Structures are given as structure tokens and as C-alpha cells.
Amino acid sequence: MFGIDRRVLALALARMADAVGNSFLIVVLPVYIASGAVSGDTFGLAEAMVTGIVLSLFGFLNSFTQPFAGRISDRTGKRKVFILLGLAILAVTNVAYAFAESYVSLVVIRALQGVGVAFTIPCTIALVNELATTNTRGGNMGVFNTFRLLGFGLGPIAAGSVVDGGPYDIVGVQLTGFDAAFYFAAVGAFVSYLLVTLLVSDPERTEASAGENFDLAVRGRRGGLDSVFTLGLATLFLAISIALLATIEPMINERLHQGKTWFGLQFAAFVLAQVVLQTPIGRASDRWGRRPFIVAGLVILVPSTLVQGFVNTSVQMLVARLVQGVSGALVFAPALALAGDLAREGQSGTQLSILTMSFGLGTAIGPLASGFLVQFGFAVPFELGAVLAALAALLVYTQVEETVSPGADVRPAPQD
User: Is residue 348 one of the residues assigned to a domain?
Assistant: First the structure.
């Protein structure tokens, strides 16, 4: 499929299985806390604030730890062992939720998960990068992101059904709906662990040439900003723009006179566009260049974000989110591929972690920003998102170098 290395396909399937389980927690944890199953010291904070800390702690720890994890994997020349370490931590901590009875334990478990995923993400992306060539890197990144997003989109849909369907009697063992959801998430991580163990290996060139000396560059060789650093900023601004919606769901529903089902569809529209377009756009960037797609996506992001602050009907918001999804699809795979093209051999983990860290930070900052700015007017968060998108487009257009000659002959990667 598109000349994809079988190990990349295995990594994509593993990431999908893991994403299904991990995205379960986005839906389950707030409901679990609100159910009264957790008690004890709340650190002097309201329950809602503790819930927010539990959810956001994962994102912040995950993001800030990724560059260190990527650097360690570069220095050792090993990817697979760190991916397995992260998946093992995820599997164990998912099970641990079923035994958590205090807010402190939830915070500790979520923090451990953030660190575990911090090893999995940059090492997986680096391995995908190293298993590809310049002529197939965009397609590889597109396939990988497509499966990841499929898992992320399916998880929340299934989570509600699993929780509501409890209690369960499985071979004489009684499980509540919450317990079943946590074990299901653990199974997802375990399936990923098996897939990586059985089907994935480090490429020989990674084992032979781990990076020894590397500093994250801000300035480019010819002046201006470094291309990878610029792509990190663009990814941060993109992630903030697309994450503005979640926090202000009640206000959106009231403004558009709609229920939760409509909001769910609007939220999922972005993911749907990603799933459909990631692979063909990534493949096209292998032939026609990375930068034109990234710039086009960021330009489209400006109006598709801004209009969300002024729509008056549910259908209008749905269309805006679909277009925003198209803009994201134009950016994600080509940006990862371009950063991978520029990464020197043995340094993919550190280089690509800049983008994955930026995306994680953006998805954590976006909801906080919208929650604060909406008090100044419903459209204000989306106006900020549009300004950031425009700045990102300008930065990429002026500071990022192209790595692919338009019209390049795209050949399948050799299969191992």
C-alpha cells in the first residue's frame, strides 16, 4: 500500500490499538471522578478543578518529556525498546485506574502515563521516519496518522457504551462499567505491545549511527529561524486553533440551540477529514513537495477557525470543522515528512519530538485559552486562533526550506 514498509504498517496498527484504549480515558475519567468512586484530599480545590488537573497533567508531562525521550533513543540508537517500555507503562497504569480510590492516586497514575506515552510517541515517529525514504516519507506519515486518528476517533464512541453496559459477568468475575473500560484500555496497550514485539525491528542504520552531538537549533544556517523549529511553532499554533472548541461546549450548544449529539458530530468532523485525506496528501507531498501543502493548510486554517466564532447554525459549525480538518490534513503528514527529511541520521527522535511536543502542548493550551478568552466575547478565542494560523502560514512561507523537487519520481520503499 503506497510502498509502505510492513513495519510501518505494523506500527500504524499498533498505534491505532493504543489510541483506541487511551482515548477511552478522555471520556471515562471525568465521569469516573464525578461518580463518587474517588474520594480523599482534593488539595483544597474543587472537584472540577482536580478533574482538569488529572486530564491536563498527562498532556503537559507527555509534551515536555518527549524531547528527552527522543534524545535518549537517539543516543542509544534504539527505538523499539523504548516504544515497548512506554506501552508497558500504559498497560499497567490503565489497569491501576480500577484500583484507584483517591485523587492523589489518580494524579500519580496519570503522571506516569504521560511519561510512558512520552517515550512511545517520538520513538514511534522516528522509527516510521527511518523506515522510509525521501520519496515515500509523506505517504508513510500519512498512513501512520490515518490509523492513529481512526483509533482516537473510535475510542470515545465505544467508551460510553462500555461504561453504560456494565456491570459485566466475565467467567464469574464481576466488573463494573468503569472497570471494564479501564481493562479495555489496558488490552489496547497490550495488543500494541504484541504487534511491536512480533512485527517491528530497528533499522540497521539506526543501530549503527545514533546521534552523539545535537542541540535544538532556533536559528537556521542561513539566518532566520531553523526550519524544524519553525514547523514546531506552526504545529503549536495549529493545535491551539483546533483545540479551542472543547472547553466551551456548553456555550456553543446554547448559541446554536443544539444538543450534545450535534457537538459530537462537529468535534468528530475534524477527525473524519483527517482520516480520509492524510494518506493521499502525504503521498502527494512526496511528489510535489512538502511546503506548498503546509502553507495551503495554514492559510485555509485562518478562515475556517475565524468563522467558528460567528456561525449561527449547527450545519455551519459542522462545515467549518470539516474545512478545518482539511487544513489539518494538509499540514500534519507533510510537516512530519519535511522534518524527517531534514533530520540528520540518528537524530530523528530529537528532531521529530519538536513537532510531537508542540502538538501536545497546543492541545493542552487551546482549551485553557478558550476558557479564559470567551469571557471577553464568544468570537474572541476563534479570533486568536485565526491570528495564530496566519502567523504560522507566514513563518512557514518565509522560514522553511523545501526538501522535495516537484514532480519527483516516487518509488516504493524496499520491503524487508
Answer: yes
| Residue 341 and residue 356 in one domain | yes
Mean per-residue pLDDT, 396-413:
71
Which CATH number characterizes residue 380's domain? 1.20.1250.20
Q: What is the dihedral of CA 351, 138, 157, 268, to 10 degrees?
A: 100
Q: 273 is written with which cell numbers?
A: 477529514
HSE-CB of 9 using CA atoms within 13 angstroms: 9
Provide the number of structural domains found in the chain: 2
What are the cell numbers at 239?
Answer: 493545535
pLDDT (tens digit per residue) in 190-228: 988 999 999 888 776 544 444 455 556 677 666 678 888
* Cβ-based neighbours of 138, under 8 Å, separated by 6 or more: 281, 282, 283, 284, 285, 286, 290, 333, 334, 337
* Structural domain boundaries, residue 292: 214-408
CA-to-CA distance for 2 and 158, rounded, in angstroms? 30
Q: Which grid coordinates are listed for 399?
A: 522560514
Give the Cβ contact number of residue 378 at 10 Å.
Answer: 17
Nearby residues of 320 by Cβ (< 8 Å), 6 or more positions away: 304, 307, 308, 311
